[in-house]
Amino acid sequence: MPSANPPPQILSVFSTFAVGGPQVRFTKLAAHFGERFRHAVVAMDHDYGCRARLDPGLDVAYPAVDFRKGRTAANVIQFRTALRRLRPDLMVTNNWGSIEWSIANALPVTRHIHIEDGFGPEERDTQIRRRVWARYAFLRRCTVVVPSLALRRIAVESWGLPASHLHYIPNGIDCARFAHRINRATWPGTGTIIGTVAALRPEKNLSRLILAFKLVAERHDVRLVIVGDGPELETLRRLAAALGLGGKVFFVGDVAAPEACYAGFDIFALSSDTEQMPLTIIEAMAAGLPIAATKVGDVPTMISDQNDRFVTTRDERPLAEALQALVVNQALRRRLGEANQAKAFSFYNEREMFRAYSRLVAANMRAPGPAEIASGQQGLSSHA
């Protein structure tokens, strides 16, 4: 028989539930919470690829909610109807793609936490004005979580969100899982292995990495391993073939447990146009890898001080120069990898992330009362 008092339910809304940083973080948090909560997940694009990574013992529902892109008013009405029907104890929205749910809850149906991880390629260089306004109008009264200090500054200075409503919670991982480099993935051929793990989307700009790799491969014996899947896959395959890199570039696809891939890399590369606090950087650090990366988000402050000079502008030539300097110096790679690993264990262990989110969810796990609904206020937890 079902329990007379079932656990509270958290509704999590994503623009997509395909495998990516926010989605993987959700699976880890859900596993950590265990039976304390029930979950409902809505993916705006109906892609639930990350569902396979959820603990099968969890109570997770996937409610069907109608949605038509570009019809904001109709969507807001539909989403508010869904909120009244589902009556979650807490709604957690993720990134700009879920903003219409925030609008739907402007006059609160439930408590609301919004997690903002960063931007798509359309906001790589500048904030879109209407989005700035919408974030100011519809996020200022809810609890907002950001994983990076750069994004926290943007939220205060650009979006006008009250600093008291913002919670900086750095991403964290199980560092020990990535530190054990016993089971190493292998790929055909010889030479130093440059690797990356990324969703193959435009903002990750993996074409930049392939072009940089081409410059390095002209002078050195190297291989490039790209772990991940996404809409850019065929475009990237064609680029690698056009550059004559057959047999040197390997597309591995999505890997549920990528530890063995990291263990097989000699160097980790990140070529993104926009990031905030990428989990893959932390995973590479925990795996003891040196890192060559573009200067985006918190990346320059995440890595060790010794590794800092290998963070470059968003161009393939300086990225290639950083990669080449690491390819030719194995002792340097080892020193940087050790420094990165030490920092990962000190600052980015998932235990701290779990504790921060547990406090935040507990503080917000209460439906708004009549007075709050009347005033439009939802009451905020203290800064985490």
What report would you give on this structure?
The strands form 2 sheets. A 7-stranded parallel sheet has the order 3-2-1-4-5-6-7. A 6-stranded parallel sheet has the order 10-9-8-11-12-13, sandwiched between helices. The chain has helices spanning 21-33, 72-86, 99-104, 129-139, 149-157, 175-179, 206-217, 233-242, 259-264, 279-286, 299-302, 316-327, 330-347, 350-364, 370-375; strands at residues 9-14, 38-43, 60-61, 90-94, 111-115, 143-146, 166-168, 192-197, 222-227, 249-253, 267-270, 291-294, 311-312. It has 2 domains: 9-172 and 350-375, 3-Layer(aba) Sandwich (Rossmann fold), CATH 3.40.50; 175-347, Glycogen Phosphorylase B (Rossmann fold, 3-Layer(aba) Sandwich). The chain has 15 helices and 13 strands. Helix content is 39%, strand content 15%. Helix 10 packs across helix 13 (330-347). The two termini are 38 Å apart. The longest helix is centred in the C-terminal third of the chain and has 18 residues, at 330-347. With 384 residues, it is α/β, with parallel strands linked by helices. The radius of gyration is 21 Å and the shape is globular. Mean pLDDT is 91; it is low at 367-384. Strand 8 (192-197), helix 7 (206-217) and strand 9 (222-227) form a beta-alpha-beta unit.
